[in-house]
Design goal:
Structural class: alpha/beta
Number of strands: 12
Shape: globular
Bound molecules: ligand LP5, manganese (II) ion
Strand order of the largest sheet: 1-6-7-8-10-9
Number of helices: 7
Distance between the termini: 40 Å
Helix content: 25-40%
């Protein structure tokens, strides 16, 4: 498993987001267009900050060669942030794990490995999409292993677009059918897996998305207080975690689209 360790003397303001699930034909549940809400959120970011996108920026991704208005619009908006010295980092989610170097370059964002650590004010922050922690969902973990097979991914990307779209639609349908039969607990993270990962990487704080259960949890690991901050999904509004400059305090924000 790959790990990136980033360490800086001066820590900028950091924003963490996940599970925006941008789509050309957005589900009708939202009161307002998520894409518009996301683009306005990007405008509100302060200059010189860092933006960490922890996966599922898109509802699904079937290849960088797919050029839709949405893909273009998002790439332009993310790229434009560079002019304000906002650095962007991307960790793959379970929906957009095929997002590749080409699109990342268009967005001027750095692709990160699935597990990452940041050193901040004497504390270590580990961040990831979060699906890796749902180890009680055996069906999903087996499915994930297949989806992450590099040869299968290469083969998939060679297929004509209409076939890739059909497969993606089929997988999405199967997934939501399966999810209806799974309990909330099974689809949540396993606390022991959280602790083991934090101990392994000597982390004090964990940030992840995927479960769509925004909250900040505090618990003990070997007598020390540990924190797990969970990002929400963007179906109902803007949701992000902000880490203030030179601080280890994580603030979770949830508000409706204005
Ligand atoms: O994202 P969410 O919340 O809906 O559910 C996830 C898990 N599901 C997934 C599947 C994705 O939604 C599908 C994404 C398609 C991406 C583009 C296609 C790229 C193809 C690349 C090929 C190399 O991630 C869900 C979890 C849930 O999170 C909570 O953690 O439970 O997991 C599942 O639903 C998996 C099922 O349990 C098992 C699925 C068996 C599917 C069998 C498919 C057979 C049809 C094949 C057609 C060719
Ligand atoms: Mn996810």
């Amino acid at each position: 498993m790959l790990l990136l360790r980033v360490s800086r003397l001066n820590n900028p303001v950091r924003y963490f987001i996940a599970d925006i699930h941008l789509a050309d034909n957005e589900p009708a549940s939202g009161y307002i267009n998520i894409t518009a809400g996301f683009l306005s959120f990007l405008d509100t970011l302060p200059d010189n900050c860092e933006l960490y996108i922890l996966g599922d920026l898109f509802d699904y991704w079937v290849g960088d060669d797919v050029k839709t208005n949405l893909h273009y619009q998002i790439a332009q908006a993310l790229q434009a942030l560079s002019k304000r010295n906002i650095r962007k980092y991307f960790v793959h989610g379970n929906r957009d794990f095929l997002l590749g170097k080409k699109y990342a370059q268009q967005c001027e964002m750095t692709l990160l490995p699935e597990i990452n650590c940041l050193s901040n004010q004497g504390k270590n922050i580990i961040f990831l999409h979060g699906d890796l922690l749902c180890i009680d969902d055996h069906q999903y973990q087996n499915f994930r292993k297949v989806m992450h097979n590099k040869w299968l991914q290469k083969l998939f990307l060679f297929l004509p677009l209409f076939i890739r779209l059909k497969i993606a639609a089929k997988l999405r349908k199967k997934s939501s059918q399966h999810n209806q039969l799974k309990s909330e607990n099974i689809m949540d993270v396993n606390q022991q897996a959280v602790i083991e990962m934090m101990v392994k990487h000597n982390a004090d704080i964990m940030v992840h998305g995927h479960t769509h259960k925004p909250a900040v949890h505090h618990f003990q690991i070997e007598g020390n207080t540990a924190t797990r901050a969970v990002l929400g999904a963007w179906h109902d509004g803007v949701t992000y975690i902000k880490q203030a400059e030179n601080s280890n305090t994580l603030e979770l924000y949830n508000h409706s689209f204005k």
